[in-house]
């Protein structure tokens, strides 16, 4: 039998911040961390959906009510990211799980003018991690987990066109943003190698969540929405199973920096080391992306 949530070590006294915690694998992640004693901060874009998720969490785990908190965070707006980090009361953050994401959207721009998938999936989380880095390094055994995707294999980043201004293909842009997640973890692990921080990545395989239908709903592409819903019901694993690689990377003993955990079979199964494209381990590419990300977000890690 493979690794399950029952094997999560005791998290008492640890604080976890999880982005996109109101649904899908994000909600399962906060629930299981809270079940094991962690103080959890649900970082959600929608206050209404976040409140509903918090109420659901407390209903399922009444004993965790005093250790759960909702805070608004819009990764598509750097002002919101800065406000979230400034107002977070914790002097120490033990776990930062960069889970929120969007997939295969029509071309849109964030509040700061970035292509939305790159802006939300990478730049927003890059800025958030940098703004919380001092509090992460203040923890005894901190971890940062980036939730990427096996779809990263479809495309490497284009350092000269990070915002897809020379042409936009929704799936290419998504793949590039997920490659950026892995390059970010690679560089963060390299830069913090002499500290206690572990920077790792995970992916959920093909899990049944609202992520797949977000793009079709925005454009009223009902046929595509139906196809994704059918795939979710027939092929995808549950959100509970999809959250396991993230939970493993966040809590399992011995997780190494720059590791990539996914379902054993690639698209489903218990957590196991995942194959990743060779370009996601490039020191030169990760450093170029890091420098560009600091310039675009105005967040410097020092």
From TrEMBL:
Coiled coil: none annotated. Keywords: Oxidoreductase. PANTHER family: PHOSPHATIDYLINOSITOL-GLYCAN BIOSYNTHESIS CLASS F PROTEIN, PHOSPHATIDYLINOSITOL-GLYCAN BIOSYNTHESIS CLASS F PROTEIN-RELATED. The keyword Transit peptide does not apply. This is Oxidoreductase. The keyword Signal does not apply. InterPro entries: NAD(P)-bd_dom_sf (IPR036291), SDR_fam (IPR002347).
